[in-house]
Amino acid sequence: MSGQQRLEGRRALLAEIRRAGRIPRIDLAERTGISRATVTTITADLLREGLIEEVARESGSRATGRGRPKVDLKIRGAARLIAGAKVSRQSVSMVLLDFEGTQLADLEVTLDRAVHAPEDFADMLGGCLDRLAASIGRQRSEISGFGVGIAGVVDAPRGFVYWSPSLDRRNIRLGPIMRDRIGMPVHVDNDANLVAVAEKSFGLGQDHSDFIVVTIEAGVGMGIVIGNELYRGTRGCGAEFGHTKVHLDGALCRCGQRGCLEAYVADYALLREATYAGGADYDLEGLLAAARAGEPLALSILQRAGRMFAMGLANLVNIFDPELIILAGEQMRFDHLYAEEVIAAMREQIVQVDRDPPEVVVHEWGDLMWARGAAGYALEQVSEAAVAGEDADAA
Amino acid sequence: MSGQQRLEGRRALLAEIRRAGRIPRIDLAERTGISRATVTTITADLLREGLIEEVARESGSRATGRGRPKVDLKIRGAARLIAGAKVSRQSVSMVLLDFEGTQLADLEVTLDRAVHAPEDFADMLGGCLDRLAASIGRQRSEISGFGVGIAGVVDAPRGFVYWSPSLDRRNIRLGPIMRDRIGMPVHVDNDANLVAVAEKSFGLGQDHSDFIVVTIEAGVGMGIVIGNELYRGTRGCGAEFGHTKVHLDGALCRCGQRGCLEAYVADYALLREATYAGGADYDLEGLLAAARAGEPLALSILQRAGRMFAMGLANLVNIFDPELIILAGEQMRFDHLYAEEVIAAMREQIVQVDRDPPEVVVHEWGDLMWARGAAGYALEQVSEAAVAGEDADAA
């Protein structure tokens, strides 16, 4: 067995054990096509390294014969600790997972400012990691990997942030800076991409090879899964939806350009209209309440936002023809964008063929779910490092 | 060697021989990682089947030793005949290729009508195939496969046409209908997809894994290559660009919807403006000439078309972040869309990061190049059938 074959065997077997939950060795051989002898060798290594463990076969799962007691293999949760964070303007949400992906702890921290110097950003999150670990009597140094989701334009494989509303400067090698200051591998990605990873790994996208996730918060984000893989574009700038243009020379966007979708559907865009067109001094909650009460100006503002959003979604369908679109966000607050008339308007603006349009589902995510997505991304990287024997054994 | 291994070996070796042009057996083993013994066995089969041939080593290509004369392997052009057609409103363009991809003949036929019943469409193209084959003293029955590019929405793997401006009805199993009437496998796809296949196979996309082709004729088409593969979407309705919306409730499009990009940049859209807004009775050539002469109304019409086109392109860049965008069409006629100010306007509307924007190149295609794309698609299918031993040996 060459080094490359051994690596591929380890990767395939660990992935299959993870997928199965609990599985006998003989089924591993069948499902992966790897010989029984090689399965025995590799799983012995994985057991010795503490990445997997043997558990007694659950009764009924497979007929047991005589001889030695039958066992299944499973991922050993205690093998590693993995953290994930979602950083928003006002808060940080974090989760701590074990190697099985079981959530051990969570933490929500309110921030006193929205924009940070990169080093301060790293130190702030390092402190949060200390608190997160301490909440279950562990230490930051026991954590093997940390996934971080932020808004902005991120080249994830390099850990490079072209721009983020959370950072006070552009073009930051945030991954390496954080790794040096926090003392563990840090995997940074655009937050909407991490939602797509989470939907693929343990959400509504598990059974779909091609789907799009649209996230709605202060901005509009997107993650694209094509052929079961996240699509990032060639510079890491792909899957940008909020700044696609829906009107030539249209409304001014915070990005400095005109006609961006966000300039019609984001919080600030709604309030701009409410304040200047109507003279009313709304905040967002007030505007939403006024619309629910049937106030014509408020209704008009939200309805146009919905129609612009529908048009943007229709363009995505025309371009990608996905199986599924997942709208992920805080359900109650963005009801006007999730409304049935918005989805209906989208369906009217796609190319009409005699087959059903893509399914559209609304998936309410709390910030902890975003953090779980970030942790899931880090778990993939930690698993890969463990397969390659590149990490220190934290068990 | 299992049947599956043998099939994969045949596929890999034929592909490598095609890529290399001429190649010694020993290099085949090195480049594919297939053992020398297996290369010998499989190439002997391919030689016996007439799919490849031996040619004397060109001097200087590799040091020759003593012993039997050194030979290279190459694809045997005479092994198969493959045809491709591009069907437009006014004409059919066709090419005939040999198994090496060398063009043996071409044909351009003017059509007396733009819309056809599916059976008439098949018979018309069957007649064209007779003429194409006869032009080099061959017969239609000697052709192994036929690729057809048409405008419209096509689910290529099924040969199913949801809608095409060339057909008098919707939802046609055009591939099977044509196969039955013409007597050979027929591979139908959207014409812009075939341009993307051609750019990938023998055009400007050969060295790029992720690029977009935008075609401009009477309509605006798109082909997307992601990870070296054509991306078709899940229903075959993907990569639709001309009917993405650039204006909410905007100009009426021929498709019946409003605000489509085509409703601002297609021929009919330009003439609609010229006729109704200015009172002038232009045809397209007249409008373009007037714009070149600096006539303000004509200039205004073309400039807005350019700005809308730039906005649509910017949206594609924001979504895909491709390495390369290829604008393919009849150069002279659509100069106003290929203009440097259009590309500059596109660059201003993409997400700004401190890395170069995607390269944009203009590739002038005649209709025969579109037909070559269709033939290239058929050549892939014929090759695969030959590898699998599924076709009658036409040699």
UniProtKB/TrEMBL annotation, chains A, B:
PROSITE patterns in the cross-refs: ROK (PS01125)
A Pfam family hit: ROK
Keywords, ordered alphabetically: Kinase, Transferase
The keyword Kinase is assigned to this record: yes
Annotated GO MF terms: kinase activity
SUPFAM superfamilies: Actin-like ATPase domain (SSF53067), Winged helix' DNA-binding domain (SSF46785)
UniProt key word Transcription: no
Membership in a protein family: Belongs to the ROK (NagC/XylR) family.
Listed name of the protein: Sugar kinase of the NBD/HSP70 family, may contain an N-terminal HTH domain
Native source species: Jhaorihella thermophila
